[in-house]
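Study the following:
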Amino acid sequence: MASYPDLDNEDWVVAIKLQGSKIKLYRPACPHGREPCFIDVKAMPRSIYTLSSIMYSKKDERFYVPTPGSEYLCSLDPNSKEKDPECIGLCTEDLTKHLDQDDINEVKLFCKTVHFVEAPSGEQFLVKWFFKYEDDFYKEITSRTRQFMVFRAEDHPLGKKKKQLVYTDDIGDLCIFLGHGEPYCLRASWHPGLKPNCIYFVGHNLGVYDITAKCCNIFYNEEVPLRSSEFPYWSHP
């Protein structure tokens, strides 16, 4: 679920991501009346699936949902009368400029989810979250976070229908929070106890990932990794 409501204005909207590729918009007052209403978003691409995350960009004033292959962002204007999403192409630079081919091949062996997030400054990032299914201490199949890749999303010189993804291992004073809810980004120096240039994650275990060091610290309870809870979300500050 994602929103950026102006509570002083009755015409705010919340986007709700449902099973599969379905999205609904909720308004406290419908365009043709004062009663609350749900609006179905039409024609969502089939490449959007249940684990795709939705977020609101204050900078662009749009809802975004990245496709699992990170080729596109599905973009939705909450103020548009047309409830059909637009597709924003994502152009990724050559990763061999930054990573060894062995590292690139290794992550292809993992499962992944893709998330789009915006910093308070308006900087935008696409994050690939890699995890692997394995037997745990109790011989049950669980998922375990292995790695993340972070890309800065910059305006493309060819226009608004594209964004350029540039690999980075340094997001400065920022930290990113990922779970099964809306991803968000905070300045670590504004919140004592947070570590900058890190990703805090819950969903495939619980832990923190240092982006520059590529170090994944999973939290344990005695000798057993803390599992994903039935409600693996971070509450917004």
Q: What stands out?
A: Residues 93-225 form one domain. The mean pLDDT is 82.
